[in-house]
Design goal:
405 residues, alpha/beta, Isopropylmalate Dehydrogenase, Protein-Tyrosine Phosphatase, Chain A, 3 domains, two-stranded parallel ribbon, 14 helices, 18 strands, binds NADP nicotinamide-adenine-dinucleotide phosphate, binds magnesium ion
Length: 405
């Protein structure tokens, strides 16, 4: 057995829930710990632990990422009323991802893992479409009222300096209805823009951005203005030199154009658009389990994870003693993404090389026809394709990895 490769800085390891928690252990035991001399700062964001710590553990994990700059996160349950009952929770804790994003003020970039035997649902797409989701504000930090009787709804801004409040009538309610207030912040939009321009330049791909500024002449228009200001002030020359472009259009036009494109761009999306479009892209590229995700903060913090959730249905089967065929690709790529970034920051290329070997081993496994159930449904038909169980899939990747060491 060759000597283990040293990871010189602790990895911030954020554990999670259900089936992804089960696979997390397997990935560590089979693909990482046998080969890496690696220390982790471990944060258990399993729902029970979040409840026990009044969710302090989530806040602590975000601060650990600020300290070490790089973290890897497992999927976690965002509790709803059912979960509160299921886990006997004190309350409906907020989304851990929302909490962490709020602290790091990051942008989430997602990109599909492409293999040669799975063609995207949209035939024209040859290259991965990367999505950048603004991860602050809008409906995710809203204030809502259920209107039950007639009355006037107003938008009121009260300046802290004691000057005259600004008021606008939203609606004069005669019937029951609903109301929502949302906001965003210039610095957050600006750092979103910066993260997107940085990522596009780093990847050498065009940047597309769309909002509904024809309808929302102040709110959405502000996003467009800030992107344009940033582009003109800091990126025009760099983009020209790299032969890439920044392209703004209305969000609905952007959707239509993306469908007709060859792919290969970064598509910057407002928070809600990114939430919806990234799930659409993931399923068009094959499976949610082939979509990676990284939170990039303008302060230089990186948090890697899979895009999918905790795969609850598979977990219930698992605890009932049934074997599942759950796909660990995106979880594996979360770990390798984290290791590659760690290697870059630490100046330890051997760690990055090892991470790429894991990725190659995983891609080769799927391309050789060994795959989980979700991929069987979308892969090119081939009599050699074989559906394997969760753990067997990781074992096959390990076998391929061993050949590379
Ligand atoms: P999900 O966990 O993403 O799973 C939805 C369905 O997609 C699964 O039932 C499965 O389909 C398929 N799938 C997803 N990942 C897969 C994988 N790795 N391998 C094979 N199939 C996979 O979404 P959910 O069931 O709506 O949410 C479950 C929990 O996850 C919720 O409590 C939610 O709060 C949480 N969540 C967390 C995050 C996060 O932490 N980043 C993100 C989203 C959701 P089949 O059942 O058809 O096989
Ligand atoms: Mg979504």
């Amino acid at each position: 057995m060759p000597e283990k490769i040293k990871v010189t800085t602790p990895i911030v390891e954020i554990d999670g829930d259900e089936m992804t928690r089960i696979m997390w252990r397997m990935v560590k035991d089979k693909l990482l710990l046998p080969y890496l001399d690696m220390e982790t700062e471990y944060y258990d964001l399993g729902l029970k632990k979040r409840d026990e710590t009044d969710d302090q553990i989530t806040v602590d994990s975000a601060h650990a990422i600020m300290k070490y700059k790089v973290g890897v996160k497992c999927a976690t349950i965002t509790p709803n009323a059912e979960r509160v009952k299921e886990y006997g929770l004190q309350k409906q804790w907020p989304s851990p991802n929302g909490t962490i994003r709020g602290i790091l003020d990051g942008t989430v970039f997602r990109a599909p893992i492409l293999v040669n035997n799975i063609k995207p649902g949209v035939r024209k797409w040859k290259n991965p479409i990367h999505i950048g989701r603004h991860a602050y504000g809008d409906v995710y930090k809203n204030s809502e009222i259920k209107v039950t009787k007639p009355g006037v709804a107003e938008l009121v801004f009260t300046p802290a300096d004691g000057s005259e409040p600004i008021r606008k009538v939203i609606q004069e309610f005669k019937e029951p209805g609903i109301l929502q207030g949302i906001h965003n912040l210039d610095p957050s939009i600006r750092s979103f823009a910066t993260a997107c321009f940085t990522y596009a330049l780093d990847q050498g791909i065009d940047l597309w951005f769309g909002t509904k500024d024809t309808v929302s002449k102040i709110y959405d228009a502000r996003f467009r203005e800030i992107f344009e200001e940033e582009y003109e002030a800091n990126w025009t020359n760099k983009f020209n030199a790299a032969g890439i472009e920044y392209f703004f259009t209305l969000i609905d036009d952007a959707v239509a154009r993306v469908m007709k494109s060859d792919g290969g761009m970064l598509w910057a999306c407002k928070n809600y658009d990114g939430d919806v479009m990234s799930d659409m892209l993931a399923s068009t590229y094959g499976s949610l389990a082939m979509m990676t995700s990284v939170l990039v903060s303008p302060h230089g913090y990186f948090e890697y994870e899979a895009s999918h959730g905790t795969v609850q249905k598979h977990y219930y089967k698992h605890i009932a003693g049934e074997k599942t065929s759950t796909n660990s690709m995106a979880l594996i790529f979360a770990w390798t993404g984290c290791l590659k970034k760690r290697a870059e920051l630490d100046g330890t290329p051997e760690v990055g090389d090892f991470a790429r070997k894991i990725e190659d081993a995983a891609l080769e496994t799927v391309e050789s026809g060994i795959m989980t159930g979700d991929l069987m449904l979308v892969a090119d038909p081939d009599p050699h394709n074989r559906k394997v169980y969760t753990e067997d899939f990781i074992d096959h990747i390990q076998e391929n990895l061993e050949k590379k060491l």
